[in-house]
Design a protein that fits this description.
Helix content is about 45%, strand content about 15%. The chain is of the alpha/beta class. It has 4 domains: about 180 residues, Rossmann fold (3-Layer(aba) Sandwich); about 90 residues, no CATH class; about 120 residues; about 210 residues, Rossmann fold. Its EC number is 5.6.2.3. Its cofactor is [4Fe-4S] cluster. It is an enzyme of class 5 (isomerase).
Length: about 650
């Protein structure tokens, strides 16, 4: 039996395989992760941009000898791991290990084409199987069906990410969720099923890549989505609490109930489906009289209608014909039953809401909708994830206010406990030399009515000095659009792109390819966008990104913290803002050769008491409040970038 190779040797070979450069922080991280996996001690690792953290945890995971799950927040990172990092690592490891462990990807069932639906058709609104929808949707569905058959013939994955370009509506015509699935024991196409084959493949894998949501469903909700495992690496761990909350959030509106009732009417006996439809109308009548926002005390009329929906859905379920196990499975009936059961469970959850959950109503363009979510997921994470598995959490932003405790607490780890440790391996970048943080101390405080002339004039001056090359991160769509409008008018020679002008990947591509342009946008640009080089030499942040005071979930969390004797503002609002600020400022320096300025137009960073906490959460750039110094630095960068 060959000796297990040293983590440093495999890491060195893997870094060479991807054409990277070995970093001291990467080595330190790999050895710490190896120790954590061996000892069972949880680990938090902050690994700055450029560290190469993916290989820093993949190498010890591959060498661990037992199954490790890697969970990411974004598809981009998952794609990078599966398509680049893991194959390169395995190729490198073969030189020192001989045989390398198998790896697999696990996604939710709806991410795979369903061959039963492809071949038998999808139910329409009445629950009748339709071969091909009409119009442009039909053309998309035909193309997806042909692709799915080609995937089945070639033994490929049938994964949504490899499908031809399509709309979400078209994909729903060729896929099913877990409730709509007939089950492997009853489906005539089970032997070819893409989702089942993916799960069988995962059973043989030592390294499994998945996402935060599936990890939450498996570990916290107790729904088996993954093969048995003892250790998990959570990348992009600053997103974990939000993704777990999102996975545990339910929604209900009258249209959902009516749609379920319509499907059930075609499949179930009796009149209960009509009663469910009436309950839908009753919910709409109640919500019309309600204001959007958090619902602290459920009024009697809403309580009664939620109970009516629950009971009507339960009665409807009892009217479905009993399955005898002999007749051919009915996909339309299965889907209708699943929709009604979803309605029953959600209505029951809302009707019996306790202190640990928050209920609120939102108002869309067409209708109003109820939402329910857990206020705090830390206890669930501590008991069901950290209490059962060895967990390594890593991200470029895990330290807030200069320490790990705020993030650790939000995830259920208690400061001072000896079951976890933390490590900051730094960044290979010299932030003091590469970046400047300018806070516009002399600007007025941001107002409730959006950007005022002082902020608009500052944005214009900064963009002009930078010669474009600006990523503008704004707290609202209205602010981004207003800034774009004004800067276009005042600097007509500089192209300004604004979120909404085109799809975000297209805007990012245009921005990256034309360095003298600007890209203005909101939350989706604050994190996960990689724009290295001269294309981004100025990042503007219009204000501290505190959550809105009327945000139902955040305000409920603040109130819960205060009820427990803590500081709700610091523990919720300030932590939320610090994390986004760290992510936003992190857009500037993406490579060792990048240089630039982050300009924050909110003086509270240097004037408010909580400002020091926020400032300590940011990269260690050279800092100034002198406007002329910042403008001068931008002009010099512009000249250097324009010089051949």
């Amino acid at each position: 039996m060959s000796k297990t190779p040293d983590v440093r040797a495999v890491l060195h070979a893997a870094v060479e395989a991807v054409g990277g450069e070995e970093r001291p922080g990467q080595i330190e991280m790999a050895e710490a992760v190896q120790h954590s996996l061996a000892s069972g001690e949880h680990l938090l690792v902050q690994a700055g941009t450029g560290t190469g953290k993916s290989l820093g945890y993949l190498v010890p995971s591959l060498l661990h000898g037992r199954r490790v799950v890697v969970a990411t927040a974004t598809l981009n990172l998952q794609h990078q791991l599966v398509e680049r990092d893991i194959p390169a690592l395995k190729d490198a490891a073969r030189k020192t290990m001989g045989e390398v462990p198998h790896h697999a990807v696990v996604k939710g069932r709806s991410n795979y084409a369903c061959l039963h639906r492809v071949r038998e058709g999808a139910p329409d609104d009445q629950g009748t199987l339709v071969d091909v929808p009409e119009g442009s949707l039909g053309a998309e569905v035909v193309e997806l069906r042909e692709w799915a058959e080609e995937q089945a013939s070639a033994g490929h994955s049938g994964d949504k990410d490899s499908a031809p370009s399509h709309t979400d509506r078209a994909w729903r015509q060729v896929s099913v969720n877990h409730r709509e699935c007939l089950g492997a024991s009853r489906c005539a196409h089970a032997q070819e099923c893409f989702a089942e084959l993916a799960r069988e493949d995962a059973q043989d894998a030592q390294l499994i890549v998945t996402n935060h949501a599936l990890l939450a469903i498996d570990a916290i909700d107790g729904v088996p989505m993954l093969p048995e495992y003892g250790a998990v690496i959570v990348d992009e761990a600053h997103e974990l609490a939000a993704r777990v909350t999102q996975a545990s959030t339910d929604e209900l509106d009258s249209a959902m109930i009516e749609r379920a009732a319509r499907r059930a009417r075609a499949q179930a006996d009796g009149q209960s489906a009509d009663d469910l439809s009436d309950a839908s109308d009753a919910l709409n009548d109640v919500m019309v009289r309600m204001d959007e926002g958090r619902i602290d005390a459920v009024e009697e009329s809403l309580q009664e209608v939620l109970e009516l929906i629950r009971d009507s859905a339960r009665a409807t379920l009892s009217d479905f014909p009993k399955e005898d196990g002999k007749s051919e499975p009915d996909a339309a009936r299965q889907q209708a039953r699943g929709m009604v059961d979803d309605i029953r469970k959600i209505a029951d959850r809302m009707a019996s809401k306790g202190e640990t959950e928050v209920l609120w109503m939102s108002a869309g363009q067409r209708d109003k909708r109820l939402h329910i979510a857990p206020i705090d997921v830390s206890a669930s994470l501590r008991e069901k994830l950290f209490g059962e598995k060895t967990v390594v959490l890593t991200s470029a932003t895990l330290k807030l206010g200069g320490g790990f405790d705020p993030v650790a607490q939000s995830l259920g780890l208690k400061p001072g406990d000896d079951d976890w440790s933390s490590l900051d391996v730094g960044s290979p970048f010299d932030y003091q030399q590469q970046g400047m943080l300018y806070v516009a101390k002399d600007l007025p405080l941001p107002g409730r009515d959006g950007l005022e002339e002082a902020q608009l004039a500052e944005i214009t001056a900064l963009v002009e000095a930078a010669g474009g090359r600006t990523l503008g991160l704004f707290s609202s769509r209205r602010a981004a659009e207003r800034a774009a409008e004004v800067v276009r008018e005042r600097l007509p020679d500089i192209d300004i792109w604004c979120q909404g002008d085109a799809q975000l990947p297209e805007l990012a591509r245009r921005f990256a390819e034309t360095p003298s342009t600007c890209l203005f946008g909101t939350l989706s640009l604050w994190q996960g966008v990689d724009l290295p080089g001269d294309t981004c030499q100025l990042v503007i942040i219009d204000r501290i990104p505190f959550p809105r005071p009327d945000d139902p979930l955040m305000s409920a969390r603040q109130r819960l913290v205060e009820k427990r004797g803590g500081n709700g503002f610091m523990n919720v609002a300030a932590h939320h803002a610090a994390l986004l600020l760290a992510q936003g400022t992190g857009r500037l320096i993406r490579r060792a050769t990048d240089k630039g300025v982050v300009a924050i137009l909110d003086p509270r960073i240097v004037t408010a008491r909580y400002g020091s906490f926020l400032a300590a959460s940011l990269p260690d750039m050279w800092r100034t409040t002198d406007r002329e110094i910042a403008l001068g630095a931008l002009r010099r960068l512009d000249e250097a970038a324009a010089t051949p």
